[in-house]
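Notes continue from the previous slide.

Worked example: a multi-chain complex. Inputs as given:
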Amino acid sequence: MRVELRGITKRFGSFTANDAIDLIVEPGQIHCLLGENGAGKSTLMNIVFGLMRADEGEILLDNQPVRFSNSGDAVRRGIGMVHQHFMLVPVFSVAENVVLGFEPTKSLGRLDRRRAHSEIRALSEKFGLEVDPEALVENLPVGLQQRVEILKALSHDAELLILDEPTAVLTPQEIDSLMDIMRSLADDGKSILFITHKLKEVRAVGDVITVIRQGKIIDSVPPTRSEGELASLMVGRDVNLKVTKEAVHAGDPVLELRDVVVRDDRGITVVKGVSLDVRSGEILAIAGVQGNGQTELVEAIAGLRRVESGTITLGGRDVTNRTPRQILDAGLGHVPEDRQRDGLVLSMSVEDNLVLNTSRRAPFARRGTRNLAAVTANAEELAQRFDVRTTSVKSPTGSLSGGNQQKVIVARELSRPLTCFIAAQPTRGLDVGSIEYVHRQIVEQRNGGLGVLIVSSELDEVLALGDRIAVLFDGGVMGVVEPTMSREEIGMLMAGVGPS
Amino acid sequence: MTDVAITSTSTRSDVVPHGRTRAIGVLMIIVGVFSAWAFGLGSVADAHSAFTFTPVNVSSAVPWSLGQLTVLTRPTNLVLALLMIGLGVEVYVRRPSAPLVRFSIVAALFLIALLFWACRTPGPAQVPFVNLTSVLIGSSAIAMVLIYGSLSGVMCERAGVVNIAIEGQFIAGAFFGSMIDSTTHSFLLAALVGALSGAALGWILAFLAIRYLSDQIIVGVVIVTMMSGLSSYLNLQILTPYPNLNVGNIASNIGVPLLDKIPIIGPTLFNESGFFYLMAVLVAAVSFALFKTRWGLRVRAVGEHPQAAESVGINVARTRYRNVVLGGTIAGVGGVAFMATQGQFQVGYTSGLGYVALAALIFGRWKPSGAVVASIIFGLSAYLVNALQSYNVPLSSEIIGMFPYIITIAVVAGLIGRVRPPAADGVPYRRD
């Protein structure tokens, strides 16, 4: 199917999310839409998929103008979308999810489950996407859930497949297999719109790369362009993609984990005896696909989750199962994985968030009374030093962009005397400019002699920052390796395949 | 941008840690030990409990007659207590993933032991003390109303709207039901008007919850408060001055041929009012519709993941409106059914049954069949509260009245296996 967008414009109040966008996707083409978070990619795709209506412009499918009042219309016209956050009902079976909205029925409106199952088996076979139609979605690994999303789109005879940031949750191997699936679908004549901010992926799989920035199309380029060129187009200025680091001067261990065992909310043991050392002056990066115990491990170190057995030593002191406050006071800086839930109080001002864990101490409080002038002065100084862009330090933190919210947390944590600094997914959802900034801060702290622990599901980030890399799989350390190890080898460790 | 703060709700999975299953095992053992001590050893050695089975008021219609059953209270209750302890030990040791059935059995055994103990007489019993068939008939009347209420809850909550206004819909149904039946002498018309009043209240809830994204709990409580105030005012202004508007007929029973002749079960299940049979039909219909049909799949998708439903072209708002109004209709009929068993409307006489129905819904895990089981247990204990007052029991009836709420707390606290409401239950859906 040939898809053409003409002059698509979408405004939210005074903010223009999409500004006169023109885009053509040819049949059998993998068209990459590259842009930073907040560039307007998702808005544009929601318009194409009928979830939002454009203020101006039109959509043409095979040169016929179309108008969608909801996504059901878009699906009927052959558009399928694989959402970044899967549109799957976890408690439903694969089959129920795939047929939802287009269910085969018998008399009395009864679901024809048998027909649904056989349709899905046929579809699986046709596209080589194997999955058990009777399995419950919540019991499937993320990679398979995504496959269900793709099957769902294909089951409605999609001719245009939109993939919104599909690789964020996958292992390198799963990403390779997704790329193969995309290739074979394109060879079948399907058009594919691939949305991402990852430069490596667009160059690997794209036929055409269209770069979008601040709601406008900047350029369409062939995939032969270098990563540096693409990044400059995306950000609008030259970007330094390589993190420059001096040679490591590691000292004594500041954070020691010994046989740490932690359970998750369901009571299942998800960290199964992890032993690691973080030494001063080095960055230890933990790599691994999400859900292999990283989240719980970091929470245990920060005192947010009980350690079932094992010990955690911070700067020579045993802090196992101490309260978060005791641990923070012992010199731990913590940037949590979910900054909006665990790192900030979004409805509170920037200045208050900057003293969340020091507000009870001088100079911010005296005899139980807050010293608001000191809080404001502190905030203004930190905003300056850490480049937090906000109209006022008294604005609610929720009104800041994701990158600036992250800077608030980093500023708060680094403005205290620390022995060890932990950052979980420090650049998740940030634009390239902010990523560069946060990375530089982390390296500076390490150069200044702090021990740094990074947890990231982005392999590129792990490779760029880590002085040593610990790969976590199924709650255990698969190995601690040098960053010179190849992506493929680390990918194998992430998938639980040990070195032979 | 100020609403950013509100949108970041956490989505933690609510699965019960293993320790809680053990806790419920311990609780069951404690209940068993208590029964052994209070109801077993608490009876003198030669105390007897006697039961009769022939229903009192319809005895002429039944072609059967069962003799009186007399048992020694102490050994009987000790056996029952041992059963409870055994089930508790089994749950503690084996930690089954869904101990709900075992817990229900223990709850029922506890009530039976209580009954044996309450009607005991020292020495060989002469006077038959408890008429078991009457107990079952009385309990089934309450259970019926609870089932209407929890079916209403199932309809609403499966689509993602919490209907805490069931109590208010009961009041409306009972009030208008009494007025219409008194004037027209037709329970059919009364049921229709009661259904309409419940539907109207459901629509108010849906409108505020869906259009204005209001907190559904608050709207529900407001509706109940409004209805109890309004019914009290209208009672004073209309029903008191015109007593012939509130005559309080009780719906007559219709026997199912042959089936109503079965001992015990016949009078309990097959000689009931039309409301009872309608309830049975509704349970089957709602179960079938929710779990076997396309309609039900879509409703459940809306209650679990409205964004996913919307993305395949399902109209979330329309689905929710329809279900909440349907749920209100069912609760409205439930109010009429209550009135048809209790007689003339009085202020406050639903006495929180709507909330107990909500508890039954949770106990029954948002399934019609589960809600039926829960309603039966709750109905039995609610009936016993009243019945025990007539026995010479040195136990305050209010204590037994707490029973449904205590088991509900145990259930809601997640003691009994996984309690998982529809994921989007009570969460306003904002289409963006």
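Summary box: Chain A has three domains: 3-235, 241-331+417-500, 345-416. Chain A has a mean pLDDT of 89.
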